């Protein structure tokens, strides 16, 4: 008789299973800014980061979150840009204050048909102390 007790096998958590869990759907919170607004106006949108959730659904959530501005605008007309992680909130706000239709260097147009996961595979974190960390800039449609 052995005095060793059997240790149950620990389930191995591989990177693939972590990825599968994320793809199955956690929520992600994104900090959003509309050009011309200030740091106090940055707003959060929480949305599923599931593998089938598209950027177009983020547009719907943004519209619903800011009905004060977008009540009469179809969410598909909102233009969303992903902000590079290394950009500070103040830099973004100042640049957009000077030109609220400018597309900032270091941002990426988000295709409505792409998945949210393709732009945000993990929860973005602010890198500058005291800042929220802007993740998405929303350009309302221009009147043409």
Automatic annotation (TrEMBL):
Ranges for domain Crinkler effector protein N-terminal: 28-138
GO cellular component, one term: extracellular region
Subcellular location(s) per record: Host cell; Secreted
Coiled-coil positions: none
Matching Pfam families: Crinkler (PF20147)
Keyword annotations from UniProtKB, A to Z: Secreted
Keyword match Nucleotide-binding: no
Superkingdom as given in the UniProt entry: Eukaryota
Protein name stated in the entry: 7625_t:CDS:1
InterPro entries: Crinkler_N
């Amino acid at each position: 008789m052995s005095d060793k007790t059997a240790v149950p096998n620990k389930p191995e958590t591989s990177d693939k299973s972590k990825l599968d869990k994320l793809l199955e759907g956690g929520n992600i919170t994104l900090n959003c800014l509309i050009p011309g607004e200030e740091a106090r106006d940055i707003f959060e949108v929480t949305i599923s980061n599931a593998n089938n959730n598209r950027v177009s659904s983020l547009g719907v959530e943004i519209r619903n979150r800011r009905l004060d501005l977008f009540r009469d605008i179809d969410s598909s007309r909102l233009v969303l840009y992903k902000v590079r992680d290394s950009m500070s909130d103040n830099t973004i706000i100042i640049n957009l204050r000077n030109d609220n239709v400018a597309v900032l260097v270091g941002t990426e147009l988000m295709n409505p048909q792409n998945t949210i996961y393709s732009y945000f595979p993990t929860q973005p974190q602010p890198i500058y102390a005291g800042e929220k960390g802007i993740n998405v800039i929303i350009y309302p449609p221009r009147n043409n």
